[in-house]
Amino acid sequence: MQGISGAYLTRVAGFTLIEYFEAGAPQQSDQIAAILGKVFQQNQRGAFLELFVKQVGDRSSPSPPSSRPKPQNAPNR
To answer: 7, 25, 37, 41: which has the fewest Cβ within 10 Å?
Structure first.
């Protein structure tokens, strides 16, 4: 759970930095805090969290074994 929380916060911080640098002009720290708050609120939506957790779960769970058919002449065990 800590890994998922860390990944989520890293993602929010990344979006904040992207928006900060896309603004072009250097901004004051209080403006960065405002941008961080805005990005955090946008990413708090339930659908985003559900999708994010699903993506993390899909990446961390092992792949299911392949369901290849047995060859016709293979012995039964």
So the answer is: 25
Say if pTM beats, i.e. exceeds, 0.90: no
| Structure-token pair, residue 77 | 């065990």
Q: Where are the domains of the chain?
A: 2-60
Cβ atoms 36, 19 nearer than 8 A: no
Residues 14-50 have pLDDT tens digits of: 888 788 777 766 656 677 778 778 877 777 766 677 7
> Which class for 12: exposed (0-12), middle (13-18), buried (19 or more C-beta within 10 A)?
middle
